[in-house]
């Protein structure tokens, strides 16, 4: 037996940490990073990983508005040094600047933002799961990022705001889960860290009140009021004043645990896949690239091509393979012979709505509200025009829409920013493979010429292949 074939050796594994002192690990070993200019450039590229960053932006990151005339040349020198340290293929030149290629999970900042986004979506149906995700995300922080890099001060402010909002959301969920005693020390520290954030002070007051420390809650309000008047000359905001009045009146609503939200309906309407399935690797990869979670969603993705070319088969193959990307449900409608408003009614009922408004515009608004915070897939098969598709586009950035149509739907591309995939017939090799699988044992009885003729007459159209193969099998069965 010959030696097994081996593929190309995998590239080095990188881990980039920016949620604290900037650290780079290559195959588990930390790389020395000391020069401030190189650190500023690397930090800027990491915060914008897999996107082109202009040289002007890198100059600003390094010199913060006081760049010398040689700044562009010095940036190029720093990038060259970074390339030698990191290895080939990590930083690419791409007009008008540079691009750092790295998997999202190799950068702690991107892992953090992805986990926070998932937690916010999950909070409506699973508060404890959302808290667990948020705590895992917050644990990635090990200090203050980029303390000595003035050119990244706005990035640092944005990152700090993300962290504070994530922590506030986590503490709010934990208070709702009845952990008011446990969160009080953390809230006291957070008030000291960010004294102007009234949301944190309200959380502290509520936690103190629920813990039976009413006097402390009232004192927290008085301290807040005094601080705001001394610092900026303003009274606390309406939400904080309302909470203070509720505590003064001992309103029972403050102690009542929040009503359990009903679990959202998760529709699963995808039809079964059409099997066997061959080829289309490039098209499936294209759907992955366009519809992957975490990226800006197109208005819709249109798969267009002649009748029978396999548009629906391709979309269902992809949808079933990527069903985990859409945990909040999958909606499907065959638009052939049915009006868009009837499909909208079906979708709303599938999402748990019973009392539907009579006005069509109100239905569209309700549909978009119900999908605004979900990660859902909507498949619209056999669309005739862009107008009926437009009213069925969901409202959430986490939703994805795939449309199949024999028409290229130019109006949907122009008005809604839809992407488009033109599906061609199968190549000869894939068509032959599909024909052999479809004809099966009947091919032996009929001879190889029958399958060859079937492939030739089908011209790579999968539906023609399937119909022809079915006729061949019927002919053999009747003999």
Kindly describe this structure.
InterPro entries: AAA+_ATPase (IPR003593), AAA_16 (IPR041664), AfsR-DnrI-RedD_regulator (IPR051677), BTAD (IPR005158), OmpR/PhoB-type_DNA-bd (IPR001867), P-loop_NTPase (IPR027417), Sig_transdc_resp-reg_C-effctor (IPR016032), TPR-like_helical_dom_sf (IPR011990). Keywords: DNA-binding, Transcription, Transcription regulation. It comes from Nonomuraea harbinensis. Belongs to the AfsR/DnrI/RedD regulatory family. With 479 residues, the protein is of the alpha/beta class. It has 4 domains: 12-155, Arc Repressor Mutant, subunit A (Orthogonal Bundle), CATH 1.10.10; 178-263, Tetratricopeptide repeat domain (Serine Threonine Protein Phosphatase 5, Tetratricopeptide repeat, Alpha Horseshoe), CATH 1.25.40; 281-422, Rossmann fold (3-Layer(aba) Sandwich); 428-478, no CATH class. Helix content is 52%, strand content 9%. A hairpin with a 2-residue loop joins β2 and β3 (29-31). Residues 1-10 have low confidence and may be disordered.
What key phrases describe this protein's structure?
479 residues; 9% strand; 3-stranded antiparallel beta sheet; 20 helices; single chain; alpha/beta; Rossmann fold; globular; Serine Threonine Protein Phosphatase 5, Tetratricopeptide repeat; 11 strands
């Amino acid at each position: 037996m010959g030696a097994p074939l081996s593929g190309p050796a995998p590239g080095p594994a990188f881990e980039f940490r920016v949620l604290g002192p900037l650290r780079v690990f290559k195959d588990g070993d930390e790389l020395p990073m000391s020069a401030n200019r190189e650190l500023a450039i690397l930090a800027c590229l990491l915060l914008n990983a897999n996107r082109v960053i202009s040289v002007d932006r890198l100059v600003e990151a390094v010199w913060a508005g006081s760049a010398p005339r040689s700044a562009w040349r010095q940036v190029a020198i720093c990038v060259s040094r970074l390339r030698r340290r990191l290895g080939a293929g990590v930083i690419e030149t791409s007009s008008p600047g540079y691009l750092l290629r790295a998997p999202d999970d190799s950068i702690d900042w991107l892992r953090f933002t992805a986990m926070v986004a998932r937690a916010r979506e999950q909070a409506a149906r699973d508060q404890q799961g959302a808290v667990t995700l948020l705590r895992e995300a917050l644990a990635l922080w090990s200090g203050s990022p980029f303390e000595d890099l003035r050119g990244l001060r706005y990035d640092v402010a944005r990152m700090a705001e993300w962290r504070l909002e994530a922590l506030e959301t986590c503490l709010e969920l934990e208070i709702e889960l009845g952990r008011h005693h446990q969160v009080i020390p953390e809230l006291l520290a957070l008030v000291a860290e960010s004294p102007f954030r009234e949301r944190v002070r309200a959380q502290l007051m509520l936690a103190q009140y629920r813990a039976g420390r009413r006097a402390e809650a009232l004192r927290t309000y008085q301290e807040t009021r005094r601080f705001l008047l001394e610092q900026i000359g303003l009274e606390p905001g309406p939400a904080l004043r309302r909470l203070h009045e509720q505590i003064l009146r001992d309103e029972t609503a403050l102690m009542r645990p929040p009503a359990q939200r009903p679990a959202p309906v998760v529709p699963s309407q995808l039809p079964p896949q059409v099997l066997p399935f061959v080829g289309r690797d490039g098209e499936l990869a294209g759907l992955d690239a366009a519809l992957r979670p975490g990226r800006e969603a197109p208005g819709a993705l249109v798969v267009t091509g002649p009748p029978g070319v396999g548009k629906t088969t391709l979309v269902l193959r992809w949808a079933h393979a990527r069903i985990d990307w859409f945990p909040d449900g999958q909606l499907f409608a065959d638009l052939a012979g049915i009006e868009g408003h009837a499909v909208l009614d079906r979708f709303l009922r599938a999402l748990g709505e019973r009392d539907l408004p009579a006005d069509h515009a109100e239905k569209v608004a309700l549909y978009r509200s119900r999908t605004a915070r979900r990660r859902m897939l909507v498949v619209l098969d056999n669309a005739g025009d862009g107008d009926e598709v437009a009213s069925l586009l969901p409202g959430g950035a986490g939703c994805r829409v795939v449309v199949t149509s024999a028409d290229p739907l130019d109006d949907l591309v122009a008005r809604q920013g839809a992407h488009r995939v033109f599906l061609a017939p199968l190549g000869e090799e894939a068509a032959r493979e599909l024909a052999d699988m479809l004809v099966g044992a009947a091919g032996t009885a009929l001879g190889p010429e029958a399958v060859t003729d079937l492939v030739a007459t089908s011209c790579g159209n999968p539906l023609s292949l399937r119909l022809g193969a079915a006729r061949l099998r019927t002919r053999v069965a009747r003999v």
